[in-house]
Amino acid sequence: MRRSDIQMPFDPPYGMRAQASPFAEFATWHQEATTKEKQDVSAVCLATATRCGAPSCRMVLLKDFSESGFTFYTNAHSRKGCDIDDNPQAALCFYWPECGRQIRIEGFVAHVSDAEADAYFNTRPLKSRIGAWASEQSKPLKDRSLFMKRIAHYTAKWATGNVERPPHWKGFRIVPDYFEFWGNGAYRIHERHIYYLREDEWYEAMLQP
User: Fold this and answer.
1) Is residue 188 annotated as a catalytic residue, yes or no?
2) What confidence tens digit (pLDDT) does each residue in 114-166 have?
3) Interior/surface letters 151-161, b for 16+ CB within 10 angstroms, e for the rest
4) Which residue in 2, 51, 79, 188 is the catalytic one?
């Protein structure tokens, strides 16, 4: 099910057909944050949920964005990977305090192609590529020394430095159907501007703070 099929807190078409692209607005805000923020602007809170709807969230790094969606990479056997496998819907929340801005993005999740995942994996530092093989992400760890032995094992295995991408290390792309652009306001009189997708049309509206 796409999120555009889920009942929202207003009846579409609330607002009006969008005159601008939410992707273009995101790109503008992202560029401004890149020049002002002290933190890594690619850091984003990713929320997923199990099949029965139990939520969890964590920080990940955004690696690419375009009108195709917002891409991050992880171990598909991790908790977030298993959530996505069972319930391919997710949400992102960017917060840029120096700019006084927040962006929320919601949508369904698709895998990137193997070729795209390979290309990005090959740009990662050698130790990060080895770590992708050594870590059984989110699994219990009885003794950290056992994990360090796994790192040593894969370091020796890939001594040439030509590390292949593990089959469980994948790229995920959130394809949005909802954006909320939030701007900080004095006395908590914030600005909230949304875009939401209905039948392949983007609508835009304002929300009360």
Assistant:
1) yes
2) 999 999 999 999 999 999 999 999 999 899 999 999 999 999 999 988 999 99
3) eeebbeeeeee
4) 188
